[in-house]
Amino acid sequence: xxxxxxxxxxxxxxxxxxxxxxxxxxxxxxxxxxxxxxxxxxxxxxxxxxxxxxxxxxxxxxxxxxxxxxxxxxxxxxxxxxxxxxxxxx
Length: 90
What we know:
Layout: H1 3-16, H2 21-33, H3 45-80
């Protein structure tokens, strides 16, 4: 159930007289400060999606560094001594 639906349900219970004003305020504050409520930034669905995106970016950066290291040490460095003077061409 969405956060707005939960708040609406609490308001209806208060309007019906089932909840007192103090109970309503307490339940509402608990609902709004609950960190793992789905759809909230943090531990909820949005937080999980953001964590997956960050993990994906980190893995792709590591793969890119590995590919660059293979290219540098496997292709560029061995051919470096083939230039006259043993270094970069001038």
